[in-house]
Amino acid sequence: MGGIKRDLLLTQLVYHKAAATVTPSSPHLQHYAKALLAGAAIATLVVNIDPGSYYDTIEWHPFDSAPLYRLRLFYPGFNLATFVSSLLLPMFVLLIAKEIWEAFVLEHGGLRGKLAIAPLAMVLGGMVMSAVTWQILTAFFEIAEEAVDATGWVMPFGSDMVLAFFFGRLIFGKGHAALQVLLFMCILDGLLGLLTSGLAAPASNNIRVLWLLLPLGAAAYGYLKLTRPQLSLTISERSRQRAGKLRHWLILGFISWVGVSAAGFPPTLAFLPLLPAMMHGDHSFGLFAEAEEYLTDPLNRLSHFLMGPVTVILFLFGLTHGALDLGAFSPTTWIMLGALWVGKPLGVLLAVAILKALRYPLPNRLTFSEISYIAGLMAIGFTLPLVALETALPGGAMQEAARLGLGLSILAGPALVLLSHALPPRHRSGAKPVQQ
Description:
mainly alpha; Na+/H+ antiporter like fold; single chain
C-alpha cells in the first residue's frame, strides 16, 4: 500500500509550464462552506427570534478578563465569541496562509515569480475600488455622525475563500483551472485585508511595536533550533525526528499569538510569522491539493492535523459571528453591498483591462468571461471581514448593519450560479480544466 501511495505521489509531480497540473482540491473545502453556512443560519434564526438569549450566551464572561483586556488578549473581553475569533479562527487563517505561502515560494508554485503579477494586480484593483466605493457611498448616504472618522473602508477587504470556492465549483465544475485562480485571489485578498485592517484600525487605536519581538523571536528560534538542524546532512535520524515534533511549534505558536494580539493586530494573523521558519515540502501541487496528505514535513503535518478541526471552527465562527439581524438594515448595509458588489468586481476587471492593454497574459490562460465570474465571486465577503468589525466601525447599530451587508453579499454566489446555467455553454468557461 505504501508503494502505491509513493507511485501516486511521483505521478502527481508532473507539471505544465503555463497552467500547473494539480491534484483535485481537498473535499474539506466543501465541508467548510456547509459548516460556515449552517452556523450562520442557526445564529440568524435565533437572533431574530430571541436576541436577548443569543447575545447573553455568546457575550457571557465566565471570569474577570480585565488582565487579558489590558494585554489585548481576547479583545475586548473573554467570552465565547472572542474565544472563537481570537484563538480558534487563527488556525483557519494559518491553513489558508500556508497554501498561499507555498504558492509563492515552492517550485512550480502558482504564484512563483512573474506568475504572481496578474493575480496580485487584480486583487489590489479590487481592494482599491471597493475602498473608494465605500468612501463615496458613505459621503452620500451615511448620516450617522460617528461614521465620519471610522475606518469602515477596510470592511470590503477579504473575499470569502470558502464560500467563493463552493459556488465556483457549481459554475466551473470540478478541477477547472479557474478554481485555482479563484482560491489564489480570495486568499490574497483576505490576508491583505486582515493586515490592512490591523494597520488602519488596531485594537485600542494604537500599535505596540515592541510586542512584535515575541513572534519574531519565536520564528527565529524555530528556524535555528528546529528547521535548520533538519536540513543538516550529518544529523542523526533520532535528532531529526525530535526536531520535527509538532509540540515545539505549538509552544512557539502560542508565544507568537500573544505577541501579535498584544501588539494590536488581529489575532487571526498570529501564526503567520512562523510560516517562513517552518520546514515545508519542495513542490507545490496547487492550493489544498489532496496529494499533500502524503507529505511528512512539519508544515504539511500541521496542515493535515488542522483540516478536520477547521470544519468545527468555521461552524462555531458562523454561530458566534454570523447572526444577521434582519431589522438592522440601514444605509451602512447598502454601502457595504455597493462596495462589495460594485466596487470590488469593477476594480478586478479594470486591472484585467490594464493587463490586457499591456499584453500581459492572464493566469492559467483564462478568458475574460471566466475572470468576470471570478470577480463576481470575490464580491462575497463574510468570514474575514467580520473579524475587522470590532475595530473598523463604531459598535451597536452600525456594526450590525454592516454585518447584515456582509451576510447579504453571499447572495452573489447563487445569482452567479443561476446566470452561468442560463447562458449558453460557450459563455460559461472557455479554458480547459486542469488535468487530474
